[in-house]
Design goal:
102 residues; mainly alpha; 2 domains; 82% helix; flat
Length: 102
Amino acid sequence: MNDIIAFISNNLEVIYILILSIFVGVEVIKNIPAVLHTPLMSGANALSGVVVVGAILVMLHSDPENYIALSLGFIAVVLGILNVVGGFAVTGRMLQMFKKKN
């Protein structure tokens, strides 16, 4: 418990920035018009791809005995891949809506 309190007190500025970025992200996403959804979804797919690659690199360079790092990396890979696949499915369905019907 003392380690957690020491970590928080040593990294208080980083925690403030994290909380502020969460609030800013929620406000930005909430105010996006529906017209911009498809281009933003493509950007989110690209970011999720970077998350997947980063998680794989973290898992490759972690100690085989460090089960926490391996399990968090595995969860990040699975969630990143789900986000990429879901994003492409949503983008594909939205683009199908704009195609002309024969």
